[in-house]
Amino acid sequence: MRQCAAMLVAVLTTVRVAAGEAPVPNPPRHVVVYHQPGRFAGWPANNGAWAWGDEILVGFTLGHYKASDEGHSLDRDRESHPALARSLDGGETWQLEEPASLVRKEVEPLTAPIRFDEPGFALRVERDRFRYSSDRGRTWMGPFDLAGSFSFPLTSRTDSLVNGPDDCLVFLSAEQPEIKAASYRDRAFCARTTDGGRSFRFISWISGPPLAVRSVMPTTVRLGPQALLSVLRRREGDRCWIDAYGSDDDGASWTLRGKVADVAGNNGNPPSLVLLPDGRACVAYGTRLDPCGIAATLSGDGGRTWSDPTPLREDGRTWDLGYARTLLRPDGKLLTIYYYTTAERPEQHIAATIWEPPPR
Q1: What pTM value is reported for the model?
Q2: Which residues in 281-301 are b (16+ Cβ under 10 Å) and which e?
Q3: Which of 24, 136, 178, 187 has its CA at a distance of 20 to 30 angstroms from the CA of residue 155?
Q4: Which domain holds residue 279?
């Protein structure tokens, strides 16, 4: 399998050189973040990932493995809970963490404002509640109620941009009856708190007409003082894809920039967006049709057009994989973290790819 992956990278590099494109500087390198026989680990995109230089923290769901061809290979009859993995060397090696404060379920009142600019700050959104940490995820405060600020049921995951000590944009989703994407009713929106998380106010829907199309799991970057770029998971019927939306007024309104990629198969996959030092936007995501794996694409014009997808790996054993989070390391390399399954490690586990995008 490793020989096949190496041959794939060599072929892709040859094709790019023949087409006049810059080759990938170095082949992607894959590492195991967490794997244990008999355990299921999944969905980093649902849980969040954070970086403080070379210290990186990723959240995921940890449960028990039960093989399934139709659904997720998670044993729903046994306990599962949120867990973390931490790296102190840019994602090269990892250590499992299971802080008790992360699994606490009783909602608490937020009695003091959050300092979003704390150097060890991390925010984690869990549908209709949130938690935060001020010590790089070693201990978590909460959960706190998020639903009370809105008039509709929330289906949110983690995505936010800190503006200042008391000011933070959060990118959420809600059930809306007009959405007609199979059994899913999500629509993504932008909200803001200016009082340290004690209240949130609705700012705008991110996706516009047609309203029947699902939009969920945004990941967002700031392009300028008032400019935002957000990429969304979309679905209409059995068709799944990723769209890019832009805002030039700090989230007050949004316009469709362009389609990022098609992500067909088993409800598609959410995107993971990061801004490169040269200004390009990069999206990584899971692919659930053969060959299953992880792919990435780039935009140099603010999300209006995107390159042909480049596979980072294509050795996935089944479709039950993906949900990536991508972070930029201090050395300029990208770290894409996701859940995965291979012939060598059939249990769903957390893996990461360290890679370099081609030069501009």
Answers
A1: 0.91
A2: bbbbbbbbeeebbbbbbbbee
A3: 136
A4: 1-45+263-360
